Amino acid sequence: MEYALFLGCTAPIRGKHYESTARKVCEILGVDVVDVPDFACCGFPLANASAEAAFLMAARNLAAAEEKGVGAMMTLCSSCAASQVHVNREIRSNRKVMDRTNEALAEFGKHYTGSIEVKHLARVLWEDVGVDAIKAKVKRDLSSLKIAAHPGCHYVKPGEVHDCFDDVEDPKTLDELVAATGATPVSYEDKKLCCGGAVLGFEEKTALAMAKQKLDLVKASGADAMVSICPFCSVMYEANQGKIEEAYDVEYGMPVLYYTQLLGLALGVPEKELWFRMNSVKPSEMLAKVVIE
Amino acid sequence: MITERELDKKFGLEVADRYGGEAIRRCFSCGTCAASCPVGRFDSRFNPRRTIRMVLLGMRDQVLKSDFVWLCAGCHTCSERCPQGVHIPDIMTALKNMATEAGYTHPTLAKQIDLLKDFGRVFEVEEYDNKRRVKMGLPELKLRCEEVKIILDKLGVNS
């Protein structure tokens, strides 16, 4: 399994601990990762201004991956996954779209023949590596941990775009990935609630109200931590947690880990290399429940 | 109060001609979208059912100059449930594109356009970031991507 690692905009700047632990768990699980320095933004935020320009930006990344000679692309961010998968699907299913796209890409000497498969990292772990292969490599006992998984929106939706690999009304794959680490995925209300990330820049108050609702419900579930698989969901729940606590006079102290940090913990990655010190809400209480050699 | 003379009957057709907009005429206002919308739950200004009605009635200015046009999170909760197969997030994207083309670009979006033209990303990669990345054993990022600027300029996307 070889994947071009699509970093996107947020993860390599604001989620370096996500990127680093993603690379580590991939290495342990035999997923080969190739860097493509030519990758730029997936186009997701730009779709607000021009869906056409956003489409070409995603197509440009697909061409860059193809140029590198890999057969697949793996994203860290759920919104990157949605745009890259969607554009790839449109190009591959319609000859006219492919021709028009290539006419535009020719402007800077790029060309895309449609050979790339695109998946989110979590989908690669669930589908290509598999829960059983993960379980087989677990080295630390996480059975004392209760984890609230936040699947987010674009990891699974639109369902049709993502081949309906998970159930859009009751997503389960992330819970299964959490269970594979030995931790217990807790159920909580409103699990599918959007983090509000796409609204943050347009109406902060509304976006924070959306994130608060989820933090309230996760807190009520008794989870030791929440896990996310999207750097922007993490920005909403973790980086903005203090702001929400202040605005609403509440207290959460809810650690928000990237799934790859939890998985790395289970796989025996040295604690230092899991970068918990980069999480703005420190998971000290959670870590105290785990025996780390 | 709005009079019929102020309505722009072509507005709905224009939206229907945009990518993902074609199904808008199938909307029978059941309200599944509005009931499902996680943004509408916390901000009553945003209501996808009402927005679609406004578009079909031809309320161009009231939609394109509004605050609410920017509030769709694109989460696809509505479109997964729409019994008529209306691609509501695509319609909201079309409306945002039309608002941008009409010169009502939201300041946050204008800033993102500038960042993309300068850096090819919506975050500026600074030397500090690369230093920090190298320290963590991560590869350096390219500081710019001219090709993104070429795409945006060619399509006339400006802040």
Please provide a brief summary of the model.
With 293 residues, chain A is of the alpha/beta class. Chain A has helices at residues 11-14, 16-28, 51-67, 78-93, 95-105, 121-129, 131-136, 173-180, 197-200, 204-220, 231-239, 241-248, 259-266, 284-288; strands spanning 2-6, 32-35, 72-75, 117-120, 146-150, 184-185, 225-228, 256-258.
Structural overview:
The complex is a heterodimer of chains A (293) and B (159). By secondary structure, chain A is of the alpha/beta class. Chain A folds into two domains: 2-121, Glutathione S-transferase Yfyf (Class Pi), Chain A, domain 2; 138-288, Rossmann fold (3-Layer(aba) Sandwich). In chain A, the strands form two sheets. A four-stranded parallel beta sheet of chain A has the order 2-1-3-4, with helices on both faces. Chain A has a four-stranded parallel beta sheet with strand order 6-5-7-8, sandwiched between helices. Chain A has helices at 11-14, 16-28, 51-67, 78-93, 95-105, 121-129, 131-136, 173-180, 197-200, 204-220, 231-239, 241-248, 259-266, 284-288, and strands at residues 2-6, 32-35, 72-75, 117-120, 146-150, 184-185, 225-228, 256-258. Chain A contains 14 helices and eight strands. Helix content of chain A is 46%, strand content 11%. Chain A is globular, with a radius of gyration of 19 Å. The mean pLDDT of chain B is 96. Chain B has two domains: 4-101, Orthogonal Bundle (Fumarate Reductase Iron-sulfur Protein, Chain B, domain 2), CATH 1.10.1060.10; 107-154, no CATH class. In chain B, helix 7 (107-119) crosses helix 9. The longest helix of chain B is centred in the middle third of the chain and has 14 residues, at 88-101. By secondary structure, chain B is mostly helical. Chains A and B meet through helix 1, helix 2, helix 3, helix 9 and helix 10 of A and helix 5, helix 6, helix 7, helix 8 and helix 9 of B.
